[in-house]
Write a structure and sequence with these properties.
Blueprint (H helix, E strand, L loop, with lengths): L11 H34 L2 H4 L1 H15 L2 H8 L6 H19 L3 H4 L2 H25 L5 H36 L4 E3 L3 E3 L1 H40 L1
Antiparallel strand pairs: 1-2
Helix pairs in contact: 1-3, 1-7, 5-8, 5-9, 7-8, 8-9
GO biological process, one term: fatty acid elongation
Keywords: Endoplasmic reticulum, Fatty acid biosynthesis, Fatty acid metabolism, Lipid biosynthesis, Lipid metabolism, Lyase, Membrane, Transmembrane, Transmembrane helix
Subcellular location: Endoplasmic reticulum membrane; Membrane
């Protein structure tokens, strides 16, 4: 007897694409909500809205960034084609800044840099998740492909500068409150502001590595895309 063909919705490739589409859609909706909320609040309340950005959308932002850790699992098990280390560096940047630097210090949450940082993150993610979501179902647009592979060239360095500035502004509060600073056995102590200063230097090293990878990826994608259009 011949093998019975499985329905399309039971085939592994279909299930994988369906899962990725739903994941990208959830992320797109989350980041779109954040960006729309920030835009409406700014036009309604002006600069005053920037002060309480974290209080208004911080929960949704933390939820979106927490869910994004699934992308490391996607790459590891092979359902998403990407390099693990560059994505790991990008995600850890955001997790450290959002959860360690901003969330732990209420004084930092009121800084303008938090609003600026959230705008940069959401601009990148809305374009990236839109492109990824459509790619999963085989839809591609030249403008969107170019934008997803080009927007980061300006925004990503600005993100890193904003992250570094957020760390700089948080240092006095970590020094005065002693958050995360602790004493270990054998008279060893961890002074967290020193850890942040070390991480500040590593942030720019990681930016160079990530930027180089993204530029190489951009070159490959934009070289292949015209060939795909000709075949179509």
């Amino acid at each position: 007897m011949g093998r019975v063909a499985l329905p399309a919705w039971l085939q592994p490739r279909y299930r994988k694409n369906a899962y990725l589409f739903i994941y990208y859609l959830i992320q797109f909706c989350g980041h779109s909500w954040i960006f729309t909320n920030m835009t409406v609040r700014f036009f309604s309340f002006g600069q005053d809205s920037m002060v309480d950005t974290f209080y208004a959308i911080g929960l949704v932002m933390r939820l979106c960034q927490s869910i994004s850790l699934l992308e490391l699992l996607h790459i590891y098990i092979g359902i998403e084609s990407n390099h693990l280390l560059p994505r790991f560096l990008q995600l850890t940047e955001r997790i450290i800044i959002l959860f360690v630097v901003i969330t732990s210090q209420e004084e930092v949450q009121e800084k303008y840099v938090v609003c600026v940082l959230f705008i940069f993150w959401n601009l990148l993610d809305m374009v990236r998740y839109t492109y990824s979501m459509l790619s999963v179902i085989g839809i591609s647009y030249a403008v969107l492909t170019w934008l997803s592979q080009t927007l980061w060239m300006l925004i990503y360095p600005l993100c890193v500068l904003a992250e570094a500035f957020a760390i700089y502004q948080s240092l006095p509060y970590f020094e005065s409150f002693g958050t995360y600073s602790t004493k270990l056995p054998f008279d060893v102590s961890i002074y967290f502001p020193y850890v942040l200063k070390i991480y500040l230097m590593m942030l720019f090293i990681g930016m160079y590595f990530t930027y180089s990878h993204l530029y190489s990826e951009r070159r490959d994608v934009l070289r292949i895309f015209p060939m795909k259009k000709k075949k179509m």
